[in-house]
Amino acid sequence: MRLIVRALGTWLIGLALVLLVIDGTRSLGADGLVLTSLGTLWSQLHAPSLAGATHFVQTRLFGELLGAGLTALLSYPAFAVFGVPGIVLALLGRAPRREHFLRQDQI
After folding, report:
1. Nearest to residue 37, comparing CAs of 73, 67, 86?
2. Which long-range contacts (CB under 8 A, 24 or more apart) does 1-4 make?
3. Does a structural domain hold residue 59?
4. CA atoms of 7 and 95, how far apart (whole Å)
5. How many domains are there within the chain?
6. Per-residue pLDDT of the chain (107 residues; tens, 9 = 90+)
7. Is 37 helix (H, G, I), strand (E, B) or coil?
8. Is the dihedral of CA 26, 28, 29, 34 positive or negative?
9. 45 and 57 housed in the same domain
10. DSSP letters of 67-97?
């Protein structure tokens, strides 16, 4: 299980780095800071699925609250939306430490 969590975290971190490089390249070209939001990226990749996901969330129980959360999530930079969970998953998937600290008289 740890292997799957760590591999998924590594993939998300890799995707976040690719998106960060794309934003950096666009920032250099525009001579200013350019951050691509998740909503913009999703609409560029497949706009009908974004509309479908938005409609799905808004028609559920607590749809107004979930819709506001989805709108907030879609406004964040895409590299951060993928990078933060990737780092968390990579840290959760690491092996536990096996260090045992000794007192000075045990050395």
Report:
1. 73
2. 2/93, 2/94, 2/95, 3/93, 4/93
3. yes
4. 13
5. 2
6. 889 999 999 999 999 999 999 999 999 999 999 999 999 999 999 999 999 999 999 998 898 899 999 999 999 999 999 999 999 999 999 888 777 777 777 66
7. strand
8. positive
9. yes
10. HHHHHHHHHSBHHHHHHHHHHHHHHHTSPPP
